[in-house]
Amino acid sequence: MTHVARVFRSCVTRSLLIFSLLLVPFSLFAATPLDINSATASEFAAVMSGVGTMKAEAIVSYREMNGPFESLSQLTQVKGIGEVLVTRNQALLRVVPLDGNEEMTMSDVEQ
């Protein structure tokens, strides 16, 4: 094996390792949709596509100031969160109401 081939193979192997380690936070939350009434800013940032630290903190701040969310569509009231962003992440999110009896999903956004 030539030196160039060994370097290339080493780079590919390391890249794949780094890529798989970066996906770990996403895979931790992938099995169960994220409850927007209990999620932390770091969970929002790790799970939601298009949501970084600033938007995630805005969601948590909004929830702290206005109380728990009643539907996913209410996320659009948070500055920087639009309908497209909510729709893009609909499969990753859920709302567990205060009574805990019924889970709301994206169909509630359409109402």
From TrEMBL:
<dbReference type="InterPro" id="IPR010994">
    <property type="entry name" value="RuvA_2-like"/>
</dbReference>
<protein>
    <submittedName>
        <fullName>Helix-hairpin-helix domain-containing protein</fullName>
    </submittedName>
</protein>
<keyword id="KW-0732">Signal</keyword>
<dbReference type="InterPro" id="IPR004509">
    <property type="entry name" value="Competence_ComEA_HhH"/>
</dbReference>
<dbReference type="Pfam" id="PF12836">
    <property type="entry name" value="HHH_3"/>
</dbReference>
<feature type="signal peptide">
    <location>
        <begin position="1"/>
        <end position="30"/>
    </location>
</feature>
<dbReference type="InterPro" id="IPR051675">
    <property type="entry name" value="Endo/Exo/Phosphatase_dom_1"/>
</dbReference>
